[in-house]
Amino acid sequence: MSEKDYYEILGIQRNATKEEIKNAYRKLALQYHPDRNKSPDAEERFKEISEAYAVLSNDEKRRTYDLYGRAGIGDRYTPEDIFRGVDFEDIFRDLGFGFSSIFEQFFGRRGWGWGAPQRGYDLQYDLEIDLEEAASGVEKEIRVQRIEECQACSGSGAKPGTGLKQCPTCQGSGQVRQRQSVGQGLFTVTQITTCDRCVGKGRIIEVPCTECKGAGQVRRSRRISVKIPQGVEDGATLKVRGEGDTGPGGVPPGDLYVTVHVRPHAVFQRRGDDLICEVPISFTQAALGSKITAPSLNGRIELKIPPGTQPGTLFKIKDKGMPRLGGSGRGDEYVRVNLKVPTRLSKRQRELLIEFEKESGRPD
Length: 364
Known about the structure:
The chain is α+β, with helices and mostly antiparallel strands.
């Protein structure tokens, strides 16, 4: 395909409406449809205008193209994704041309991948772990339901000991051709459609496999080991290559995407790679200074409280936070000290506090 601008290909302005885009494509499709135009470049031109229409008629793809151009479309969408969901039949029904068979011919049999998936579907799994597991890294075994090739028939769909035979409807071609007059008999076109009986495969199953009922695939539950790296953040998604659904006809499987959810912790709050916790101290510890112990992910640590510490003060303990993803050091831990006010005092404690207030100069 050329790198020509999609809007130029269809001959429209960049602010064209959907109706203007559709009308431009209808006009060009009628002009370059291979059943009507036999010039050497008609086939390539038809593919070019069809790709342009598939992108510009879809709001999301058009937005991507406007921002990033053809490179953005190629990075984000596979060839079959570009055309998926576009209602070409609505246009070609009025023109009297076949469409699906043409795209199977152009894009499936000539390298575009149209009509046959390039790989199986991706799967998604949500996994919960503890903060300690996120800090240390962990290997988890999960159970996933996925589509796999039927082992009984090796994916053929035929009962073991039997085979496939040529489709009598299409004689093994996978296509059915029909000729019809268009435009009040002005010209005749050949409409090529996928054979309904063999679904384009050219062969049919004589006796279906009892395990997969002729599908060639079955759904199974599998245990899969997933490595969670240390420092992983809540909401991170890990890609496990090749552990998605197996595609039909032996195409490679899709991937498994595991989204990690870190459970709330009873002691720590996480802020990026840093951890925050709260520790209560007494009035005398705050006023006179003290040594206390504070929690950490690796046991308790000693913290010095200087005299005159105010409630809510944050103390930084370097390199006691979460490991940074990728192994480049650690975050820090922050300990916030809160004043713990006693709720019950002895007679002697009360007398001493009253004396303290008097010494502090509080007026009666």
